[in-house]
Amino acid sequence: MDHASLAIFRTVAKEQGITRAAERLGRVPSNVTTRIQQLETEIGVALFQRDKKRMLLTQEGETFLEYADRILNLADEARQVVNPSAPCGTLRVGSMESTVASRLPVPLAAYNKAWPDVTIELSTAPTRQLIDALLGRRIDCALIAVPSGEWWLEPGTLDTHALFREQLVLLLPPGHPDIRHASDIKPKALAAFAPGCTYRMLAEEWLTGFGSIKEHFAVQEVGSYHAMFACTAAGSCISIMPRSVVDLMRHLGPVKEHPLMTVDTVLASRPGFETPAFSEFRKTLEAVSDIKK
Question: Any idea where the HTH lysR-type domain is (predicted)?
Answer without folding.
Answer: 1-58
